Amino acid sequence: MNTNLLYGSIPLNLGSLKYLKIISVAENQLTGEPGVPQLRFLSSLFNCSSLESLVVTYNPLNGIMPDSFGNISYSSLRDFYAQGCQIKGPMPTTLDSLTTLTLLSLDHNNISGNLPPSLGGMRSLQRLVLHNNSIEGHIPHELCHTRNLGELSLGNNKISGLIPDCIGNLNHLQILLLNSNNLTSSIPVNLWNLESLLFLDLSFNSFSGELPARMRNLISLQGIDLSWNQISGNIPSNIGAFQSLNYFNMSNNMFMGPIPQTFGDLKGNLLGAGSFGSVYKGILSDGTIVAVKVLNMQMERASKSFNAECNVWRAIRHRNLVKVITSCSSPEVRALVLQYMSNGSLEKWLYSHNYCLNLLQRVSVLVDVALALEYLHHGQSELVVHCDLKPSNILLDDEMVAHVGDFGLAKILANIKDATQTRTLGTLGYISPEYGYAGIVSTRGDVYSFGIMLLELIVRKKPTDEMFAEELSLRQWINASLTDRVLEVVDIGLLNTEEGRDMNATEDIIFSIMEIGLRCSEDVPEKRMDIKDVVPQLMKIKLGLESSRN
User: Where does 368-486 show beta strands of DSSP type E?
Assistant: First the structure.
């Protein structure tokens, strides 16, 4: 019964269905009983002896979990999902009775009080997900008794004190997220013994001390974030030992000394320069080729740009976004180590005399960029606005897959309907009217930039070309030609790559593409397409081109 329009309180007589195995009513408008603070339906499940999975995610339950919930000790309950349910008050103290529970997910609620020591009695527990609540106090040592624990997610709470040393004994732990709390002291030495650990996030706490050489023991590590602490000493020189690492953030600490030699000799490997610094080609100790973006700290707003990129990169993962491998931050140097893109920028391909992209390649690039924007705008709880979408920020890998990079001007918004203002503007010609005039940043501004870039990709003319004076813009020029002479404005190199094909069909395809670009780049924000509507249209065009070439 997930994702319906169900409302009212969850009936107490569910407990009479003793053979029921799964209750799943996620994403409705179900509540607790009116006037009753405790969520009594949880206690009523005592007789559901066959119940294995209980899913009430994203319902406005708005109540307290009763202690009697733990009395479901005779059931076979394995999974309990109740994230985003407005659950408040302390956690039940009887959770140790839930001996068969493997997953407890109560994130994004209003749970307060301390973590109950009874959590340690949940001997089957594999995933404990409690991030984004108001939990206080210390992490209880009893939690180390959950020997099968694979995920411990306590980020964005008010937890204080130390990380218990015994956490290092949880040999099955793969995900440890303790970010955005009030944790102090040094990181326990035993933590670096967790050879199964994949992701570690201790950012936004008050950890101090130095990072030991034994951190190389985290042989499975894929992502680590230690940013916004007070960690000192040298940047670890054994980053190259993390063979699977794709995210490493140590920004905003107190590190000193040089950038590790594993970044390679950068001076002779300049790839390009931007507003706030330069990008070099480097080689890690394991032979991995990377791009290193070193910011010029003498430039105004360079530090703000670096912080913006770090804040965005720690929250996003997508195949069409350039991956950040690590970051380095010290008073003298701030750098991002990025996935190397062997085929350079889209701008290089578009305006080179040696290369020419055919129609399918150009549409494929547009699909990749649109998918990246769809993820940024709709793929997570906090949306990201890029604010500087243009061909030079679109990078192509060795298979010509496009990746969006350079988030130095990006903004994070809480809601798709939100907008914010900024005094830091993107690139002339690509910024939307409301962004240029009033500094208003929203997802619609990214869609405008995408529309302009789409048009540029087809006609091979920059929006700042000298032919576009005040009375004529790139968009106006194309719009005037769309009805009866569309091929007259198309890049001649593109038309040459399509020679020998049905030009009437090609013209129809180009017309459809340009129409999308014009709808995305409307002056009035409300008239622009949503990127989630752009993606299927471009995908349809791409599939049609692929089938015609087979």
Answer: 383-385, 394-396, 402-404, 411-413, 420-421, 440-441
- Are 296 and 370 part of one and the same domain? no
Known catalytic membership, residue 406: no
Query: What single-letter DSSP state applies at residue 180?
Result: S
Catalytic residue among 388, 406, 446, 491: 388
pLDDT at 471: 77
In a domain, 440, yes or no: yes
Residue 59: exposure state from Cβ atoms within 10 A (0-12, 13-18, ≥19): buried
**β-sheet bridge partners, residue 337:** 292, 326
Cα dihedral 438, 439, 441, 446 sign: positive
> In this structure, are 302 and 409 located in the same domain?
no
SS3 542: helix
Please answer whether residues 255 and 234 qualify as being in contact, where contact means their C-beta atoms are separated by less than 8 angstroms. Answer: yes
- pLDDT (mean) for 376-402: 90
- Which pLDDT value is given to residue 417? 55
C-alpha 386/C-alpha 30 separation (Å) is 36
Distance CA 107, CA 130 (A): 4
Query: Residue 469: inside a domain, yes or no?
Result: yes
What are the φ and ψ backbone dihedral angles of 513, each rounded to 5 degrees? -65, -45
d(CA 502, CA 506): 6
Least confident range from 92-106, 312-326, 451-465: namely 312-326
pLDDT at 303 over 90: no
In one-letter notation, the amino acid at residue 162 is L
Res 158: pLDDT: 96
Do 367 and 328 reside in the same domain of the chain?
no
- Helix, strand, coil content of the chain in percent (nearest 5): 30, 20, 50
pLDDT digit string, tens, across residues 88-145? 999 999 888 888 999 999 999 999 999 999 999 999 999 999 999 999 999 999 999 9
**Domains of the chain: total:** 2
Is 23 domain-assigned?
Answer: no
411 is in an annotated binding site: no
CATH of the domain at 269: 3.30.200.20
303 lies in the same domain as 334: yes
Does the CA dihedral 185-189-190-195 come out positive or negative? positive
Share of the chain above pLDDT 70, in %: 87
